Protein 1
Amino acid sequence: MSQSPKVVIVLARCSGNREPLGIRFEEQAAGRWLGNWAFAVKATTAKKEGYDRSEIRGGIELAPAYPRCPHCQAASIYKCGCGQVACWDGESRTVTCPWCGATGELRGHIASLSGGSDV
Ligand SMILES: [Zn+2]
Ligand SMILES: [Zn+2]
């Protein structure tokens, strides 16, 4: 196993101020993605880097060292039914998606995410 881990940057949006952020995921094993970094990113940069395009599937977890949302310090993330990712404080049960504006109840766990390759 000399393969270096696959790394993907997922474009997310802050639930607080709706600003974009990038979340870095590493594939720990087949279909197991660990989010271990988050950073503020400009929408234009995200598009240019392709963060909004490719897709990763499988189980998503956040590393203990995940640094929180760079905009509002939310500790977690969720994936909306529209397929986009947003930051989440980890406590609110009812959330409003900063991408599509839908309000919904959070349940279950994240199953797939979209992101650009950053290897
Ligand atoms: Zn946030
Ligand atoms: Zn949505």
Protein 2
Amino acid sequence: MAAEPLLEVDGLEVVVRRPGGVVERPVRGVSLSLAAGERVGLVGASGSGKSLTLLAILGLAPEPAAIAGGRVRLAGVDAARVPRFRGGEVGLVLQEAGSALNPVLSVGAQLQETIEAHGVARGVAARRRAAELLAEAALEDAGPLLDAFPHQLSGGQAQRVMIALALAGNPRVLLADEPTTALDAVTRAQILELLVRITDERGLALLLVSHDLGLIARLVHRVLVLDAGRVVESGDTDALLRDPAHPATRRLVEAANRLGGGGRA
Ligand SMILES: Nc1ncnc2c1ncn2[C@@H]1O[C@H](COP(=O)(O)OP(=O)(O)OP(=O)(O)O)[C@@H](O)[C@H]1O
Ligand SMILES: [Mg+2]
């Protein structure tokens, strides 16, 4: 390993206790690490535990799920002791921007609130910063957009606003749940390319979740394959696509080839 790990996740466990004493384990001992400037894909079939893994890295597990074990460190420091870990040092871009944004606050107010909450800037300066972040997320006409409400945004615009929000706390790591729903293929590709550009420019570590290996294959340096809550295979993207070892990986590679999604040769 060349670079020092920036984000280290070790043995992450999420459990769900169902009525009647049944315990499900949607995330089973997931370990991974990301270096600054590194883009890693987390792929797996629907329900394999990708979204829960991202949330659990941030210390979140919506009920009835609960975190049952594991360690998360940022630059060697336990996440619980890192000030502004969640939403600050580590930004989250969710799968469904529409429902993640606050419907009763304008785009500008949400950005300003986040910027101020993280002590990045205040008042007029925070408002200016909000416009800059929208521009960084490739939203033209940031002025009018600052006053827009989430329901007035297109799916692609909402996703870009989510990215701007994730950047508002000056993160070192971005966790992104692929914006699959409601976006057309062209917009989806643009959003993914935007994420890559921003993480490159800022030197961020990116953990990019997708169930479509073909879609993200060209965008990430490494891929981890999740199956039923476990990392079953990991490695260099090209090698993995060429010679998948695990059946779960093979299924993803076959699906990618069938759809021709990533446009790979
Ligand atoms: N808050 C929760 N409480 C209980 N079970 C959950 C919760 N969230 C997800 N699950 C279950 O855990 C498993 C993993 O879900 P998760 O949302 O992480 O899948 P995913 O890999 O992100 O799938 P997709 O590609 O469809 O988004 C699924 O069986 C799901 O039903
Ligand atoms: Mg998901």
Protein 3
Amino acid sequence: MRQDSLVSADPLVTLFLELARIPSPSGHERAVVDFLLTRLRGLGLEVEEEDPLYPDSRSSAGNLYCRLDGDVPGVPILLSAHTDTVPSEDEALPDPVLDEGVIRSGSRAVLGADDKAALAAIVYVVERIIHDKITHAGIELLLTVGEEGGLRGAKASSLEKVVSRCGFCLDCTGPVGGVIVRSPSQKTVQATFLGRSAHAGVVPEQGRSAVAAAAKAVAAMKLGRLDDETTANVGVIKGGEAVNVVPDRCVIEGEARSHDHSKLETQVAHMIEAINLAAAEEEVDVELTVTDEFQGFDFSKGGQPIELAEKAFGRMGLETRRISTGGGSDVNVFNLKGLPCVNLATGMEKVHTPDEYITAESLHRMYDFLMELMAVARDRQP
Ligand SMILES: [Zn+2]
């Protein structure tokens, strides 16, 4: 049941519904970025769009950055959320509905509260600050593109304009009050085994099987949960053309994550050794690429972002839930680039599925939190 009268009475919910109605799967953020540009520039803000991620595509867009200079001393802070969503099945369009305080997709499309709930709260806070002339110590916004499936917008951003030394991403599931304080580093390993093709029934001895080498390498690897802070996986294996041909090419793609840097190095070295050994035994060549995907962080023992967040939640009478995760987000990239940053839960649930939802109450809690955060940052000596 649609309750448009309720919607129009609540500008924050209305803003969220407007954002959710604009489809923006990764690589196609143009329309939602244009919406945000219009809204923020309408406040008189100078908003800069960084280079689009996919310059050949008309629907591609770049990260948005803008700064509100502070009018009182204190700690300037950066707020971040991502503008893209996961794609919806059959390219279904979101038709969000508010029913008894809960906002759902209303179609087979994902709602996109991940991360439009955060975008709505951030933009609405900025609007209130400007309209109500609320003093603050400086606020920067970095609204990224291409977060889903590779943190690409955050990786592409140099953060060169950012002056804040304290950042908050709003991109975690679960009730408002949750803060990701600890996250692992991740490296990916890609190996291309290059053998020699031959007819499998006539002259198999002349062939060198890339698939056999890849299989041997994967079988020799320790994978899965390796200890309480380290995991590893091979998620892709591709090779071969036909059952009667000894395959000359096979690619495997794997990853390792750990909260402990030396454990991560040890696991990656182990995976590389398994690959090289299998290639040698099967007499095939191998090309290896190891990539630093994101950097872990650990604010479990303190740090300005967690201290400010905890104070702000305290002022709301909310207990902070400190979360340690195995996942990565834009936050890992910002920390890697030297901006201390934590990830905050927004109240979104069942993300990346058509059952995704968020309550109007969660949107308001996030808004209240951001307002308290401004107040805490204002009172704090830099
Ligand atoms: Zn997200």
